[in-house]
Amino acid sequence: MAALDRSIVLGMPIFDGLGPEQLDEVLAQARSVRLPKGGAAFEQDREADSFFVLLHGNLQVVKLTPAGQQVVIRYVAPGEMFGIAVQMGRPTYPATATAVVDSVMLVWPSTAWPGLVARCPSLAASALQTVGSRLNDAHVRVVEMSTEDVERRVAHALLRLVQQAGRKLERGIEIDFPITRQDVAEMTGTTLHTVSRILSAWEDQGLVEGGRQRIVVLDPHRLFGLAERKGASAR
C-alpha cells in the first residue's frame, strides 16, 4: 500500500503539533477509506477496533437508547478525529457513525494508539481536547433540554450546524450536508410535528428556507436573538 501524502492533512488542527517526520510516521499506519452515503464507519456496541479522522464529507453520529429511541448526538466535519473510544478507555463504540454524503476518512487500528502517542505526545493532547470539547457540547445540550423551550433548542441546533458546516450563499447560510426535519427533531428531543411547525413558521417569517433535506438560514442574527431570548414557553 502506497504511503499517504502528508498534504492531505495539512491545516488540520489535530496534526498541528507534529513535525514532518512525525506526521509521516502517523500517516504510515493509516489507510484511506471511502465511505458511501449511508455507510457506517462504526456501529454502536461493536468492538472499538479503529479510530478515524474525516478528510471529506460529513457523518451523523446516532445513539439508540435502551427504549429504542434514536438520538442524533452530533455531526462530524472534515478535519475531526472521531471513533475515539479507545482513547476514552471504552472497549466498544457508544454510538453509530453514518455518512450523510459520500465521504473519505483515514483509519487507524486502535492497537496503534499507544505507540503513536508515545512517539507523538501532541496527538494525545489533541485527542484530550476533542473529548473535552464534546463533553462541553453534551453539557450545553443537557442544560438546553432541561431549561429551554423547544423553539430555542431548535434555534440553537441550527446555529451550531451553521457554525460547523455553513456555506455562504447570497441569500443566507446553507447547512452544507443533507439534513431533514426528523434529524432536527432527534437532535433537540422533540417530535417531527413540532419541528415542522416551528420551521414552517420561521419560513413564513423569513428566518429560514427549507427544502428536501436542506435548510438555509436566511437571517442568522434574528435566529441568534431568538435562541438567546429569556423566558421559556411550553415544551
UniProtKB/TrEMBL annotation:
Domain Cyclic nucleotide-binding span(s) in chain numbering: 14-108
One MF term in the entry's GO annotations: DNA-binding transcription factor activity
Key word DNA-binding present: yes
SMART domains named in the record: cNMP, HTH_CRP
PROSITE patterns reported for this sequence: CNMP_BINDING_3 (PS50042), HTH_CRP_2 (PS51063)
Any single Gene Ontology cellular-component annotation: cytosol
The protein, known as: Crp/Fnr family transcriptional regulator
